[in-house]
């Protein structure tokens, strides 16, 4: 039975003027697990922490990392599986995948974490590989490629340095995506490769972030566990079927993080977007840009949205929910409403995100002038949106570029990871 | 009886409300005559970005290339406005009303420039230090920042006060004078013109009083009469 998923579609303008040219209409698609699904308890977790213990982690970083790992052990339920891998130049399975079935077990694992010391170099790929081996132990062999068993899989990867063999790390991220393990890739300090960690998060179907101070490690770890515990629907995919003559120009996820989504073509005009898991509460929100043709006055269905999903708690697979996107054309300017303010705010956030992302790409290619222009445009949006903190960073880095200097590593990381956030993590 | 879509001719299954192919409603087929998609751009948006010249679609909010705002700020409510419920519903909520480009409605012209001994000035209060700019005694003048590249030289140039970095447009607003009365008219500047915390819809005349605070991006000005 369907009904575990609520879909809402909202256009920036439900009515557009009749024109003799194409127009652009923004559509917000909200996908939220219904309250019934939301009321259920959390699914079993299958979590692996892959943690950098190289020499540069010495001091408050390793202390806070120990504390954060202990916090994760405290947050886990008896049904959850946990494994921890430490790495420097070598890979060390601190403890293999297991359940915490007693308090004495919990203390034993904590004492192993307490012995963690920082030394050596950084070789991340073998540790990722070992992590995937631990995670796979709890994934059914007969299960399909997206981890069809009713559990929530995740790898948390944390580093503060430049690793050897980056290409192999990306291969591991792709392998993780194939077996259905999103990676939360976290970097701390200023000397790690932010592009690599972003790609690891992205390619695995997970996410990435910048931890600017060691005290924030525990906030990030705790949030990841909470997100896993909030998963209500899995294997969620959206099929967008625009009507004849309607083009989909772009699809962005705007909540919880902004990202351009690359739809796969299904048939004809239809596009399929794999969203993965939906958490209780907000779920995910997409922004679709429809290019609509000139049409006579009237009301039209411009697209059908079909969503397929699994409800792991009740063992239901491939459930469906649908919604129509309707648009009216009118000759009467009085009935053409102003654009929806909350949608336009998100559109502006996406525009700022695009400009910042492209500016970083320009810089990678050495095109400083173009990057500067884009950052200047982004700055205007950020100021409009009242995002003064990120605006200040962008301003500082603009000044650096204009004086012929490089961006600071911290500034670049802040821009890379903060620009996509529609909700800011509470810095506590 | 087999039904065909009036718009695209596809055969329609029974009971559908919309054509599966083109989305045209099945009921009211007669109403949608495929003629006359007319009219111009009802002030909904530009078809080329005014800043970088990239192609844009009506309804598009920001230039895909450079990010410049393409819709008049009047077409949606800014977050600040949305939050302040105390603010009266202003004309800024009406979209589709094409901006009026006509100049001052009180019939002023350059020749009838006022001769009264009222002098107006703009005081740059932020960024510090405060600086006073005398406003030339003219019926109309443009405030903005100079940009030799685009050959833009406004009457009052805020460039030397950091206008570029603070978000001042090349042509930000117009001050129109009629006798002792002064009006501010936002020229659809990217960051808009905010007077005493209220965003002024573009191309509308807003009366200025001595002591009014004007925000342009991050620059703060005070309008003063003496």
Task: Explain what the structure shows.
The complex is a heterodimer of chains A (428) and B (226). In chain A, helix 9 (368-384) packs antiparallel against helix 10 (388-402) and helix 10 (388-402) crosses helix 11 (409-418). Chain A has helices spanning 35-39, 60-75, 103-114, 124-136, 166-179, 194-203, 217-229, 341-364, 368-384, 388-402, 409-418; strands at residues 5-11, 15-17, 23-33, 45-52, 81-87, 91-99, 152-159, 183-188, 207-211, 231-242, 247-255, 259-260, 264-265, 271-279, 284-292, 298-311, 316-330. Chain A is globular. In chain A, helix 2 links the parallel strand 4 and strand 5 (81-87). In chain A, the strands form three sheets. Chain A has a six-stranded mixed beta sheet with strand order 2-17-16-10-14-13. In chain A, strands 6-5-4-7-8-9 form a six-stranded mixed beta sheet, sandwiched between helices. Chain A has a five-stranded antiparallel beta sheet with strand order 1-3-15-11-12. The longest helix of chain A is centred in the last third of the chain and has 24 residues, at 341-364. Chain A is of the alpha/beta class. Helices cover 35% and strands 32% of the residues of chain A. With 226 residues, chain B is mainly beta. In chain B, 4% of the residues lie in helices and 24% in strands. Chain B has two helices and 13 strands, in the order E-E-H-E-E-E-E-H-E-E-E-E-E-E-E. In chain B, a hairpin with a 6-residue loop joins strand 1 (3-4) and strand 2. The radius of gyration of chain B is 24 Å and the shape is elongated. At the A-B interface, strand 3, strand 16, helix 8 and helix 9 of A face helix 1 of B.
The unreliable regions of chain A are 142-148
Question: Between the first and last Cα atoms of chain A, what is the distance in angstroms?
Answer: 42 Å
Largest sheet of chain B: 6 strands, antiparallel
Q: What is the averaged pLDDT score of chain A?
A: 88
Based on CA atoms alone, the radius of gyration of chain B comes out at 24 Å
What is the number of helices of chain B?
A: 2
């Amino acid at each position: 039975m369907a009904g575990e998923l609520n879909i809402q579609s909202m256009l920036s303008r439900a009515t557009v003027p009749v024109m003799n040219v194409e127009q652009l209409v923004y559509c917000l698609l909200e996908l939220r697990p219904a309250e019934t699904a939301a009321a259920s308890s959390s699914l079993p977790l299958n979590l692996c922490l892959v943690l950098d213990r190289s020499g540069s982690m010495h001091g408050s970083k390793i202390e806070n990392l120990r504390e954060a790992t202990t916090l994760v052990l405290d947050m886990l339920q008896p049904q959850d599986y946990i494994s921890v891998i430490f790495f420097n130049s070598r890979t060390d399975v601190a403890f293999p995948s297991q359940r915490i079935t007693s308090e004495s077990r919990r203390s034993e694992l904590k004492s192993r974490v307490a012995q963690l010391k920082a030394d050596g170099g950084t070789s991340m790929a073998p540790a990722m590989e070992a992590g995937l081996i631990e995670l796979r132990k709890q994934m059914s062999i007969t299960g399909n490629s997206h981890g069809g068993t009713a559990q929530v899989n995740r790898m948390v990867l944390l580093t503060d340095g430049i690793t050897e063999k980056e290409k192999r790390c990306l291969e591991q991220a792709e392998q993780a995506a194939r077996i259905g393990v999103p990676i939360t890739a976290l970097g701390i300090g200023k000397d790690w490769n932010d592009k690599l960690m972003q790609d690891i998060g992205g390619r695995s179907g997970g996410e990435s972030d910048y931890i600017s101070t060691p005290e924030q490690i525990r906030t990030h770890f705790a949030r990841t566990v909470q997100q896993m515990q909030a998963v209500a629907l899995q294997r969620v995919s959206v099929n967008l079927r625009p009507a004849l003559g309607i083009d989909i120009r772009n699809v962005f996820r705007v909540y919880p993080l902004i990202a351009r989504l690359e739809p796969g073509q299904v048939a004809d005009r239809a596009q399929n977007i794999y969203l993965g898991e939906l958490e209780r509460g907000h779920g995910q929100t997409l922004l679709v840009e429809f290019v609509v043709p000139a049409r006579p006055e009237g009301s039209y269905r411009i697209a059908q949205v079909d969503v397929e999903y699994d409800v792991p708690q009740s063992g239901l697979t491939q459930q469906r929910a649908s919604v129509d996107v309707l648009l009216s054309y009118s000759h009467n300017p009085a009935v053409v409403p102003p654009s929806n303010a909350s949608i336009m705010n998100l559109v502006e956030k996406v525009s700022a995100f695009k400009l910042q992302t492209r500016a970083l790409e320009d810089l990678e290619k050495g095109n400083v002038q173009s990057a500067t222009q884009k950052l200047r445009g982004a700055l205007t949006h950020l100021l409009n949106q009242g995002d003064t903190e990120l605006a200040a960073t962008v301003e500082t880095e603009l000044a650096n570029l204009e004086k012929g200097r490089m961006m600071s590593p911290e500034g670049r990381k802040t821009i890379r990871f903060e620009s996509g956030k529609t909700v800011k993590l509470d810095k506590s | 009886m087999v039904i065909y879509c009036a718009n695209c001719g596809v055969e329609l299954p029974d009971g559908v409300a919309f054509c599966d192919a083109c989305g045209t409603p099945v009921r009211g087929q007669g109403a949608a005559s495929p003629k006359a998609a007319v009219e111009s751009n009802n002030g909904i948006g530009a078809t080329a970005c005014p800043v970088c010249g990239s192609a844009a679609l009506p309804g598009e909010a920001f230039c895909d290339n450079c990010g410049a705002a393409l819709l008049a700020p009047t077409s949606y409510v800014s977050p600040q406005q949305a939050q302040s419920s105390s603010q009266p519903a202003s004309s800024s909520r009406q979209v589709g009303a094409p901006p009026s480009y006509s100049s001052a409605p009180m019939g002023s012209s350059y020749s009838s420039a006022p001769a009264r001994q009222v002098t107006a000035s703009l005081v740059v209060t932020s960024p510090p230090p405060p600086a006073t700019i005398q406003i030339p005694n003219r019926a109309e003048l443009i405030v903005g920042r100079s940009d030799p590249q685009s050959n833009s030289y406004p009457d009052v140039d805020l460039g030397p006060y950091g206008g570029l970095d603070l978000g001042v447009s090349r042509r930000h607003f117009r001050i129109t004078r009629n006798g002792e009365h002064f009006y501010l008219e936002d020229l659809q500047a990217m960051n808009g013109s905010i007077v005493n915390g209220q965003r002024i819809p573009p191309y509308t005349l807003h009366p200025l009083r001595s002591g009014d605070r004007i925000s342009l991006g991050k620059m703060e000005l005070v309008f003063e009469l003496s």
